[in-house]
Amino acid sequence: MEDPERAAPPEVMEPPPPAPPLETYPRPPAGIWTAGPRIAWVAGLVLMVSSFTDWYASSSQGLTLAVIGWHTGILGKLVFFLGLALILLAILREGGIELPPSVPESLIVIAIGALSTIFVLVRLISIPDKFQPGAGRGIGIWISLLAAIAVIFAGLLRAGEEL
Known about the structure:
The chain has helices at residues 36-50, 74-94, 105-125, 139-162; strands at residues 54-60, 63-68, 136-137. It is mainly α. Strands 2-1-3 form a three-stranded antiparallel β-sheet. The chain is rod-shaped.
């Protein structure tokens, strides 16, 4: 029998193999499918600005009068504030503040786009009575309508990214 004190020296333990690198997830493809947030804040900015453009215009005796969206009543003001909400949503997202997972951002953007589209369509179809009967639609209301539809499109693109 061997003496325990004279036993072979303990074997030197080899260091464990290095840990495998952390898995990196592939970046989403660039292009239009990742453009949802960018389109949303640009369309929100256009909605805000378009509420200060001419929604109605009338000409009489060589003079053209224009009515901006802000002065068309509460709907013109709501279009401005819906655009502002989109800008604030983008600022919060860039600041690292996320909405709860139960409220997807794409749903909020689509809802804002739908509301702004409805408000602009109401003003497009029904010219308020306080304006001259000969008043026609100005370029600003068409820009507002395109921006509102672009917000819906941006929300749908964002929903595609979240899936």
